[in-house]
Amino acid sequence: MTGSQAKATADVLAWYEAMGADEAIGEAPVDRFAAPPAPKAKAAPQKPAAARPRPAPNSAKPAASASASMAPESIESAATLEELEALVGQFEGCALKRTAKNTCFYRGSTAARIMLIGEAPGRDEDLQGKPFVGRAGQLLDRMLGAIGLDESSVYITNTIYWRPPGNRTPTPEEIGSCAPFLSRQIELLKPDVMVLLGGAAAKSILDVTDGIMRLRGRWKIYKTETRDIPTLATLHPAYLLRKPGEKRLAWRDMLMLKERLESLKT
Fold first, then answer.
1. Which class in CATH covers the domain with range 72-265?
2. DSSP helix, strand, coil percent of the chain (3-state; round to 5)
3. pTM, 2 dp
4. Which of 77, 82, 131, 174 is packed most tightly, with the most Cβ within 10 A?
């Protein structure tokens, strides 16, 4: 590689890093400046292989990989959050797990009555194996602290448990693959109140298409098989870092949450 090619490569890598692609997911580096390999000589035509005998109608088929998916009854069999976390660790049905460093199942207290659900882990979360520990998580902690809450009084998770490469938005398929686990997570925690952080979480949990500006600031109901949970959507802390002028709206939502929690005490 010439000096000019090396500089061009370094510039491209710097641009990718600035755009958020801070890690490669290939198993080996590729020299894009290398000359293409010489074409291989054509092999002599071979005679068609003899047809293989078909298996008998009742021959056993190869078993599907049990780790590629997980039966709903297996998820429902989890009697505790610890058992559910172990099942998530065994789950191979979400491709994001293959590029992530850690599973981010939850942060906070398993005895909490308040559950907060965000979108997806970021770089800091992936490194530490916990949701909301980066800049957005630090802002979230300050927001909760302003109404008298801390990590010991809340339970924080995401709609998916593994970081999408480059912090991209998770696809509906990726969210859907984790949805049965999240549903069971809610059932096992039995929160009195849920807070949905950002539009992606609000849309998937509430099963609506409205944007976050239409959803935030209004109490909704999330239904489980046994109870209805009051649910409040608000702006994601990462959005507030980009748009600090919108913190006033998030503060209104926090005051609504505080009022609701105080009413539950009476």
1. alpha beta
2. 45, 10, 45
3. 0.75
4. 131
